[in-house]
């Protein structure tokens, strides 16, 4: 059983770390103009500023995350703490650090701080206007096909029982249910980043999932993107629905 963060009631191993719109554009190879008349879900959105920044550009975007409680100060504390945790963790693997997006870890930290600040500034309004919604995979509070595009970054495949013995609940069944749930609430396309692939070998759960999804009416694409923190970590999964009915 994963150890819980007492304030969030979430596994403390899953970092509450968020990214900005420019990072999202590269991670998901996104052209916002294509989705300007559609609805977009970011799940989990964490303390990312994508939702707010995209909304400021006129897009209809909703973010959900289990950490979206009413206790803003806890969220701010956790966000700051997890930026430090992420940078500390990343500094152990400097030899693998790619400068494709960030010039340095300090640069990466500055992006995360920007994201957190913008997220926090918009949080109360976002909760009131219901574009920040507290929700967890694999059960989302949205009806079928509510969103044209569903984005899921830096959660699935990264946190699993394979990589951390404290994350037993994030086993293959969890991953499969989570992806099926993202597909259920989506009308057109789900994008998941990153898809771990080590020395040409896809993550075991990605392979299992692709086999299990074969019976679904989907076009499946694995696309290298321009966003990369560690060398080789730049694969994005696109699940495109063939039939929009
Ligand atoms: C690293 S953040 C990713 C945020 C954002 N997508 C990004 O790329 O910047 C991971 C998020 O997963 C959330 N999380 C933890 N358990 C979850 C669950 N069961 N379902 C959905 N999200 C979960 C955490 O609260 C955290 O905010």
Walkthrough of the structure:
- With 245 residues, the protein is of the alpha/beta class.
- Helices cover 33% and strands 20% of the residues.
- It has six helices and eleven strands.
- It has helices at 21-27, 50-56, 72-91, 105-128, 172-184, 204-212; strands spanning 4-5, 10-11, 39-42, 60-65, 132-134, 147-153, 186-193, 197-198, 201-202, 218-224, 235-241.
- Strands 5-4-3-6-7-11-10 form a seven-stranded mixed sheet. Strands 1-2 form a two-stranded antiparallel sheet.
- Helix 2 (50-56) links the parallel strand 3 (39-42) and strand 4.
- The chain starts with a strand and ends with a strand.
- The structure holds S-adenosylmethionine (SAM).
Q: Runs with pLDDT <50, length 5+?
A: 1-6
User: How many distinct domains?
Assistant: 1
Taken as a percent bin, the fraction of beta residues is 15-25%
- Enumerate how many helices there are, as a single number: 6
Major beta sheet, specifics?
Answer: 7 strands, mixed
From the 3D coordinates, which CATH architecture would you assign? 3-Layer(aba) Sandwich
Query: How far is it from the N-terminal to the C-terminal residue, by CA?
Result: 39 Å
**Which strand order do you get reading across the main beta sheet?**
5-4-3-6-7-11-10
> Any idea of the CATH class?
Alpha Beta
Per the CATH scheme, the topology name is: Rossmann fold
Q: Which series of helices and strands comes N to C?
A: EEHEHEHHEEHEEEHEE
Mean pLDDT: 94
Computed over alpha carbons, the radius of gyration is 17 Å
Helix-and-strand structural type: alpha/beta
The shape is globular
- As a percent range, the share of helical residues equals 25-40%
Count every beta strand, where a strand is a DSSP E run of 2 or more residues: 11
Fourth-tier CATH superfamily name: Vaccinia Virus protein VP39
